[in-house]
Write a structure and sequence with these properties.
Helices cover 68% and strands 11% of the residues. By secondary structure, it is of the alpha+beta class.
Amino acid sequence: MQKPDREQGIAKTALALMSECGVPATPEIFELFYAYASGEPPAVSQGMGSLIAGRQAFTPELLSDLRLRCLSSARAARAMDSLGTGINEVMNGVLGKLEAAGRDTAQYQNTLSAASGALGADGRSPEDLRKLVNGLLAATRDMEERTKSLEGELQRSSEQVHDLRSKLDNVRKESLTDPLTNIANRKAFDDAVRTAMAQCAETAEPVTLLLCDIDHFKKFNDSWGHQTGDQVLRLVASCLAENVKGRDTAARYGGEEFAVLLRGTGLDAATRVADQIHQTVETKKLVKKSTGDVLGTITISIGVSEFAPGEAVEDVIRRADACLYGAKQNGRNLVINQNDTRIAALDNAAA
């Protein structure tokens, strides 16, 4: 089968799956289902395969999370491979030029050695000496031109490498940034957690985790549409970014959930940071850009837990998630940490 026929077949399969799953026909969602139908990247097949087999509903939040986790990282990997290949090609070119320069230098040294021997020979006429000197001058001028040319080529190569490395750095940053909210993504957060845990094990510095969830986010989406929902996500992300600094990390954790990692901050201080974030969000008014109408106030619930030396990351996240659940159960728009008595009350009720 020719390539266009194959692509057309994949597109038809993707559209049929979209219809079967009842998802809206948007370019972003089509890209996701096309990737699943083509089998590339494998992460999409793995992420969507079980969901389709289990006939699980593809909510907007789930689709957004799949695109962020699977497609964004795949694009970044391809871009980094391409840039890495470009850098290797430039460096190979530089090595070739240096090797050629080495051969030119060796040839010039041989010319000088031969001339030195000729100058020391007896019975040389003035005409012979003149020819010898002229030959040396010609060889020297040729060597100067080649050296100057090499300097220019190396300068251009250096600029190419600098440009490619700059692009590579940008791709790396993009691969660690959530494209919608422009704060760290889940991968960047996981990397930050690993670094913080290693540091915590070495120095016993306090590290705390905040899990934040936008209250009634589905209501915003259902009432005003996904563009307004995206506006809510960006607004909350900016509030998080305003209230963290230094080695702290604010990240989009998935869907309407965010995470903040605070290094060198104990539970009490982290709870105050969480209060500050939640109060900052509460002061914001959601305004419809097209009309200027105020659509409502945004609130968030936050759970706070502190890392204990040697414990698993999953345990800390589970504890923060339990605190977040406690905040939701106690009326939302709250901050609850792991020492809060309301958590114990929920545990007792569950038992």
